[in-house]
Amino acid sequence: MTTFSPEQMAHATAVLNSVRTKWLARDGVTAVDLGFKWSQGLMTGKLSIRVHVAQKLPEAQLTDAEMFPEEVEGIPVDVIEAEYGLQQLTGGAQLEAAPEARKARYDPIPLGISAGNPRITAGTLGAKVYDVATEQPMALSNWHVFAGSPSAAAGEPIWQPGALDGGNSGDIFAVLSRFVLGPYDAAVAQLTGARDVLAETVDADVIEDVTVPQLGMFVWKSGRTTERTEGFIDGIKMTTSINYGAAGVRAIQDVVRIVPRPGAGNVEISMGGDSGSIWVDEASGKAIGLHFAGEVGNAPEHGLATELQPVLNWLNVLMPAQLPEQEPDPTPAPPPPDDTAFPPPPQPNFFQRLWHSIRSFWQNLFG
Question: What is the pTM assigned to this prediction?
Answer without folding.
Answer: 0.87
